Amino acid sequence: METNLPTRDQCLQLLRSVGCSEEVIAHCQAVATLAVLIAQKAEANVRLVEVGALLHDIGRSQTQGMRHAIEGARIAQDHCLPREVVLIIERHIGAGIPRAEAVKIGLPEKDYVPRTIEEKIVAHADNLIDNDRRQPISNEIEKALAKGQPQHAARLRSLHKELSERVGQDLDTL
């Protein structure tokens, strides 16, 4: 799999070629920087995490809503990226969205919960980056609660706890 992964420069070129804004690209780079740091400490596949993080919002070239994950997965498939990268892109939204909840918010009936450690790292690094700046997980939890999304808030807490335990420190202090 490693040899099929694009380089960092190829990822950035792909984001630009499909029409991602410089703001989206800056966000993706910030997520990738944090995700790589987490991946190193979590003993995960660092190259896969970097590529997945760089490309996680490629679908924002088509839409800004939750469907950007589905659009991004389609773009990744169209560009013959490895399945592991496609799944990172597809499952990075909302700290994971279960099938029943996906249907309620208008996504195709599918489970969008990150399963592998690499998928979880990218999804959570995305939650810890607001635009291109670090933020504590409490900010995202507060946003979810303010929107009346207690299940989303619980998933954010749970993923933060799981990954913090995996790396041996609270990710807010990493």
Word description of this protein:
There is one protein chain. The chain is mainly α. The protein has one domain (2-136): Orthogonal Bundle (Hypothetical protein af1432), CATH 1.10.3210. The chain contains nine helices and two strands. The protein has helices at 8-17, 22-42, 46-55, 68-78, 83-90, 99-104, 117-127, 137-146, 150-167, and strands at residues 129-130, 133-134. A two-stranded antiparallel sheet has the order 1-2. A hairpin with a 2-residue loop joins β1 (129-130) and β2 (133-134). The mean pLDDT is 95.
Q: Rg from C-alpha positions?
A: 15 Å
CATH topology: Hypothetical protein af1432
Instruction: Provide the structure class.
Output: mainly alpha
How would you characterize the largest beta sheet? 2 strands, antiparallel
Number of domains: 1
Low-confidence residue ranges = none
Q: What is the helix fraction of residues, given as a range?
A: 55-70%
Report the total helices: 9
- Order of strands side by side in the largest beta sheet? 1-2
Give the distance, in angstroms, between the N- and C-terminal Cα atoms.
28 Å
- Listing every helix as H and every strand as E from the N terminus to the C terminus, the arrangement reads HHHHHHHEEHH
Inertia-based shape: globular
Proportion in β-strands: under 5%
So, CATH architecture? Orthogonal Bundle
